[in-house]
Each structure stands twice: as structure tokens, then as C-alpha cells.
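We read letters as residues; the fold follows as C-alpha cells. A sample entry reads:
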Amino acid sequence: MQTIVAIALGGALGALSRHFMARSVMHMLGLGFPYGTLAVNILGSFLMGLIVALLAFRFNLSTHMQAFLTVGFLGGFTTFSAFSLEVVNLIERNETGLGALYITLSVLMAVGALFIGMKLGRWVAV
């Protein structure tokens, strides 16, 4: 139960951080390109790599704190960081082909699913 609470709290803080960071970046750079989301995804992926490496080689945090930081905070901040970690894990296991397949399927299918969902939502709404 403590892990679930840790994830929930981290997720709430991560989501709020994503909102405020993306909004700040968009305010600075404009609305013509999704700079805010791009910045969040890059920072989230960097932080995921840093935290995972530090947890593996330097710090011994409780499973609750690890879940708070990775699944909770970074998961709420950006799911792209979890996606990036999974890609790197596949590549580090010398499964580069699976990594490439995962990247391709994730991007194409997720964007395609969003497009289909929007079409369906518009059709239902009319």
C-alpha cells in the first residue's frame, strides 16, 4: 500500500510539473511548435537515465522511494521517459531489432490510435 501511495503522490507532482514546465516553455518560445512537450520529454528521459543509473550504482533507496521517483514522478511528468528506458534496455540486451520495432510500433500505433480516437469522438459527437 505504501508503494501505491508513493506512486500516486509522485504522479500528481510529476503531472503538475509537466503542466507548469510545458506552459513556461510555450510562453517563452511560442505556440507554433510543441516545444513544451518536447522539452518535457527530453528532460524526463534524461532524468530517468540519471536516476536509474544512480539507483543501480550509487544510492540504495527504498522500493517506495524508487517507485515515487520513476513510476510516480517521472511517469506523471512524461511517459516518454519510461518508453525511452524500455528502448535502451532492449538495446543494452543486444536486442536492437526489437528496440527498433518497439520504437516504430509505439510511434505509429499510438499516433494512429489517437487519430482514430479523434475521428470516432467527432463522429459520436455530431
Observations:
- Residues 2-78 form one domain.
